[in-house]
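Illustration: Ribonuclease R.
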Amino acid sequence: MSKKKYKNNKSASLESITQKILGIMRKESGKDFNYKQIAAKMGVDDPTNRNKIIRTLSQLAAKKKIEEVDRGRYRLNSNVDRYRGILDMTAKGSGYVVVEELNDDVFIPSNNINKAFDGDEVEIYVYKRRRNKKSEGEITSIINRKKTRFVGVLQLQENFGFVAVQDAKMYTDIFVQKNKIGDAKDGDKVVVEMEEWPEKADSPFGHIVQVLGKPGEHHTEIHSILAQYGLPHEFPQEVEDFAQGIDTSIQEEEIKKRRDMREVLTFTIDPKDAKDFDDALSFQQLENGNYEIGIHIADVSHYVQPGTILDEEAFNRATSVYLVDRVVPMLPEILSNNACSLRPNEEKYTFSAVFEMTEKGEVKDQWFGRTVTYSDARFAYEEAQYIIETTGGDIPADISITGESYRTDDAIVTAVLKMNQIAEVMRKKRMRQGAISFDKVEVKFELDDKNEPVGVFFKTSKEANKLIEEFMLLANKKVAEFIGKQKPKKTFVYRCHDEPDDEKLAALQSLVSRFGHKLNLRDQKQISQSLNNLLQDVQGKKEQNLVDTLTIRTMSKAYYSTENIGHYGLAFSHYSHFTSPIRRYPDVMAHRLLQHYLDNGKSVPEEEYEAKCQHSSNMEGLATNAERDSIKYMQIKYMQDHNDEEFLGVISGVTEWGIYVEIMSNKCEGMVRLRDMREDHFDFDPDQYAVVGRNTQKVYQLGDEVYVSVKNADLVKRHLDFNLIGNKDEVENPH
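Result:
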């Protein structure tokens, strides 16, 4: 062996002894050790290696990595290089820990993950940073598991089973003893609860808590999406019973305590298929020429009282979940679709924000409080839109909800047209003040009676949608201002939205410049104006959906908090959620707090409400993920029936393992793997957002239009793989 090689081996062995000693001490960080105990734990019994341990211990003490607490007894210096954070796993089995006090995330190699899972709160030890390299560390303990229930497929052996968890970030399956399998059969999709992960075991141990069904079946897959995020799909019986027992009749005694607005023209505008109408508008012209416009919201807090099991269930859910084929409501149906739903020709208890307004959208006077209202009519957005476009009240059969033509009241036509006019003025003013306009196209599916997707259509926002949106924004903003501007400060639930991150904006700028668009990043006002211009410029162009999606990603996430920082995207200094208490718990909290302060109540404890806000934000995130997964599932289901077709798509993402393509006609996104691109060997070029052929130098770049066909549509793994046919020009003009 050459001297050089020997030297390297020697330093490598010393390094591994150092790591082993620190590893042993980290596992039992409060305990002190002498060299004999360390040697025993390392399985070392020869004098040479024992001497190495003694020497390494004194070197580590000199470097202050460990401290000598007694003669020959050492303990880890616990204050050095230890942090807490959240683990973000990669699909390759390594991870990053996000630590608040550190600028950069800490890289954790797979051999140092130490049984932690994605999303767990962990304690880490950070090694010294090497110059120009990212911090690297090791997980020393798991403080909090993000979740202990997982969805997967049971693989049954004779005396035990394994659940293969369906999550790209999950690197282990879960071992289940025979007596903990229950009624599950081999190949079933199940929910497994992790119990423990014994020191010497390769996999964690668990027991099966629910059998979801056979993989690939519709209900199995929808229920597994909910189960994956820990979302319920039905109410406990005692909650249903409690809700059924509530007196939902309208009482004369209660009406006396409220402002009676039953005589004022009131109506709802909602999606065609809506069942829970939680907001209505009222309209009347005043003698002074101004208009009184009321925003009336279902008075959920009248029925859902604090301290009841109904309130506890609503808080735990925190939001309704809108999947492609169903709604998982926050409240039982007796409330969400009946008592609290502002159905036409019914009296309802409501919580209202009533404004005296001018034609120019200025608020001259405002009133907040509990009311009783009577809805004179119910419109779908399409019907209200028809009134706006034709300025008349004759609704044809193909637009009407009932499928029959009818004539609506002239007073309602006047109200819709006037409110639309005021809404347009308010919207323009918001835009001038720096609000950002996201009119993102929504993908909707036509389902048959077996929940099979038979068609795809796109939902866009028109004037009728914007009319409702503008008055809801007004109510949310004015309620938040009313409480937020009071002295002394009162605790309230705000909907907050931070400014976009500079790095993300710079990345967006470099990306959109490829399509010939520019951003002005000089100051906040210019940023929001040029983002609006960008979103307008791309409308109808091939890159629209890509730019819309990437612009949304540059935005911070909106969240709930008692600490008001304003709402950047809406350009409001105060904003809350007040208008959807049937489907959002923060709105229920806002109603209760508003009433409490209207009754001259003192400010409530901030910490208690901040914790509730955090919970609501977390649950909103889970619901959004579940909704996204259900759309992805339905897209794959739809594509399974279109195996032999060619589709025109746009490259929507580029990675080192493949290119993502979004089909223009139905917005389904799938992947073309680099290894399946046979015409050349393609390499990923991150600077160009492209893959480049080694021999041909052919480039496939973000935003390019390409033709693809379906290679594999896997419902169970929710994967859609495409074959690449070629660039649009090549395919359409082969010569």
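Reading the tokens back as a structure: Residues 1-12 have pLDDT under 50 and may be disordered.
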